[in-house]
Design goal:
Distance between the termini: 42 Å
Radius of gyration: 14 Å
Number of helices: 5
Strand content: 15-25%
Helix content: 40-55%
Structural class: alpha/beta
Amino acid sequence: MSIAQNPLSVDVSLPRTDVALLAVKGYLDIDTATEFQHHLANQLHHGRRHFLLDLSDVPFMDSSGMNIILRVYQEARELPGSVHIISPTPAVRRILDLTGVSITVPVSESVEEALDRVDGHHGTPGEEGR
């Protein structure tokens, strides 16, 4: 079970100054969770308050990945901020639903839908078209 067998890549982009979009590719498990956590911590450190987690290229996620998502959700709420999961694969969505994570952390089908939820979350009108 070496990390080389299941590498994780995380591409970070900034749709807005306080919003980080993290496109995750690969297995999000005990071998790769620390790397994912470092990316999130870096964005928190740089003042991001809203996190969009694109999981459309994550074929598998275990409890390590879920715990990190829940941890950043708690930290973001205290800012105040938010966390949104985007387009999880069916296997990941099933785990999110079975564990109740999808009840706590909103799941969107697109970046645009998640950004609309961010706008609704902190009430900044006029940014919907961005």
